[in-house]
């Protein structure tokens, strides 16, 4: 907390006039603001406005204006005049941030602070809200403050206090294990889980990890942009892509013993970019990587990051990254990344938002020293800004092409085996020869359809001919998307991509 306190205090000292704290746990934010007020030399008065009650006492939370509930404008008005040093803590006022009068009032108070000498600041406005809404007019006056997530030892302290309060004993290593699982959650969320677990059995033990993981999945889902992916696939479910698989197995050696590797001087793997043909196993690779590295897989949906307010998309992005970092070590899987960043080089449309988001992402990728391993996939990179693919961002760029004959054999085997239909009667070599230009997904579809037809026709087995019949009626993706695919290949040939296969 100390580091956070001094960072926030330094913003106040530097006369940042409006500080936006995007957090829903108001009591935790209150505690921080109070601590900051306490370390400042001229202890400021704190005035609180909250959207439910109007003007309230910051310490006791009782209403200050029982007789007349003040609206936000009348609350703010007098503060422009007063000279004393003060904090205005405005809670859940994001709904008012499209009101020109409120914007104007915030602006005049903020400008007055800015124009005062640094050493005697006057007013710092804290907007505390669970949603980030930044009106364009205030964009330059607002500083967004990231409320940090709790560290493992802080979480441990919360668990120990809870046990004390309810008078049960809890072993030290259980506290540590549970605290590790709770990383990424707020104090409020952790306490909710503890109450739930305690209500259930009257004490708390290591089996609560399951509950924590379930709750965590819920919370991650609620962020809207991140999702924990559950799956069964291992690296053996991928046919072909041998170079890529070999490379991943090497990185897995590092990832599985990060502490040792770091000590030895090995760089922490950052991530890979997989570009290439649709349906050729890119998402399969993301899943298999998670299995190989023995860490969870988080999927980031960039489409859901994009918000309608200035700064909202970046705030959503920062929040998603923060959660991924808290959950780390983990794989952050970003599918079809081109959809989010395409248009960055263009001047029209909403490219301002995408450009900023893209900038934040690049910086994060470049500077990241955490253990979030990014697996980004893209089909079309024709609109990608070149800096995205520059060395240093990703550990490696791989091109995933349509499978060659050898790989197609493997893919047939995998999908037939998976459905219990691999037998001597099936000539895999022939199938592979007949499916030039088929993607892995096309091959899977052929196998599925053949098996379904055999079932309907009451056959107990399938043979090569059955499969060939379906192959003949299948239009592979490489035909239907021929033009697009040729364009992608042309671009890729100019770039230094490693071949995945
Ligand atoms: P897209 O770009 O369209 O998202 P993708 O490259 O991510 O496609 P996947 O979703 O991984 O492709 O593939 C779709 C399905 O096709 C997989 O679930 C898998 O069953 C099958 N498949 C694709 N490639 C392979 C492969 N190399 N080995 C085994 N199965 C494969």
Q: Numbering strands along the chain, what is their spatial order in the largest sheet?
A: 7-9-10-11-8-12-13
CATH fold name of the largest domain: Rossmann fold
Percent of sequence in beta strands: 5-15%
Distance between the termini: 49 Å
Silhouette: elongated
- DSSP summary: helix tally: 21
Q: Please name the fourth-level CATH homologous superfamily of the largest domain.
A: P-loop containing nucleotide triphosphate hydrolases
How would you describe the overall organization of this protein?
It is a single chain. The protein has 21 helices and 13 strands. With 501 residues, the protein is an alpha/beta fold. It has four domains: 2-145, 3-Layer(aba) Sandwich (Rossmann fold); 152-223, no CATH class; 235-398, Rossmann fold (3-Layer(aba) Sandwich); 405-480, Helicase, Ruva Protein, domain 3 (Orthogonal Bundle). The strands form two sheets. Strands 7-9-10-11-8-12-13 form a seven-stranded mixed beta sheet, with helices on both faces. Helix 4 links the parallel strand 4 and strand 5 (123-129). Helix 1 crosses helix 2 (26-39). The longest helix has 17 residues, at 351-367. It starts with a helix and ends with a strand. The structure holds adenosine-5'-triphosphate. Adenosine-5'-triphosphate binds at residues 238-241, 278-284, 377, 379, 403, 411, 414, 440-441, 444.
């Amino acid at each position: 907390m100390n580091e956070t306190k001094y960072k926030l205090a330094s913003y106040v000292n530097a006369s940042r006039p409006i500080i936006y704290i995007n957090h829903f746990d108001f009591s935790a934010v209150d505690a921080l603001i109070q601590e900051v007020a306490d370390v400042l030399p001229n202890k400021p008065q704190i005035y609180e406005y909250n959207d439910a009650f109007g003007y309230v006492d910051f310490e006791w939370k009782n209403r200050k204006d029982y007789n007349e509930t003040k609206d936000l404008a009348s609350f703010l008005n007098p503060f422009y005049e007063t000279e004393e040093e003060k904090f205005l803590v405005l809670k859940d006022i994001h709904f008012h941030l499209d009101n020109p009068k409120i914007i104007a009032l915030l602006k005049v108070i903020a400008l007055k602070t800015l124009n005062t000498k640094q050493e005697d600041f006057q007013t710092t406005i804290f907007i505390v809200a669970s949603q980030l809404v930044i009106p364009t007019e205030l964009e330059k006056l607002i500083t967004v403050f990231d409320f940090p997530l709790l560290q493992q030892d802080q979480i441990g302290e919360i668990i120990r206090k809870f046990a004390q309060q309810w008078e049960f004993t809890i072993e030290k290593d259980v506290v540590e294990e549970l605290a590790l699982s709770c990383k990424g959650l707020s104090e409020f969320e952790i306490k909710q889980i503890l109450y739930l677990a305690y209500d259930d059995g009257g004490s708390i033990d290591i089996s609560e990890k399951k509950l924590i993981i379930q709750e965590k999945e819920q919370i991650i889902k609620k962020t809207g942009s991140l999702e924990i992916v559950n799956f069964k696939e291992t690296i053996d479910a991928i046919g072909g892509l041998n170079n890529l698989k070999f490379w991943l197995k090497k990185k897995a050696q590092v990832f599985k013993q990060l502490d040792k590797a770091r000590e030895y001087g090995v760089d922490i793997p950052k991530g890979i970019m997989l570009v290439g043909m649709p349906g050729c196993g890119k998402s399969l690779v993301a899943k298999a990587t998670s299995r190989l590295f023995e860490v969870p897989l988080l999927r980031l949906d960039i489409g859901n990051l994009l918000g309608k307010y200035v700064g909202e998309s970046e705030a959503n992005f920062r929040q998603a990254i923060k959660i991924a970092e808290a959950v780390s070590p983990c794989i952050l899987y970003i599918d079809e990344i081109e959809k989010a960043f395409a248009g960055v080089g263009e001047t029209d449309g909403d490219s301002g938002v995408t450009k900023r988001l893209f900038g934040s992402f690049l910086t994060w990728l470049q500077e990241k020293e955490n253990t979030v391993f990014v697996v980004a996939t893209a089909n079309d990179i024709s609109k990608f800004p070149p800096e995205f693919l520059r060395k240093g961002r990703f550990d490696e760029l791989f091109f995933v092409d349509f499978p060659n004959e050898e790989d197609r054999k493997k893919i047939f085997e995998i999908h037939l085996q998976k459905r219990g239909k691999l037998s001597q009667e099936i000539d895999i070599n022939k199938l592979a020869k007949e499916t030039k230009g088929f993607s892995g997904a096309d091959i899977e579809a052929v196998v599925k359809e053949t098996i379904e037809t055999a079932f309907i026709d009451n056959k107990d087995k399938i043979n090569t001919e059955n499969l060939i019949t379906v192959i003949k009626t299948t239009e592979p993706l490489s035909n239907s998307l021929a033009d697009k695919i040729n364009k992608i290949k042309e671009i890729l040939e100019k770039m230094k991509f490693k071949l995945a296969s």
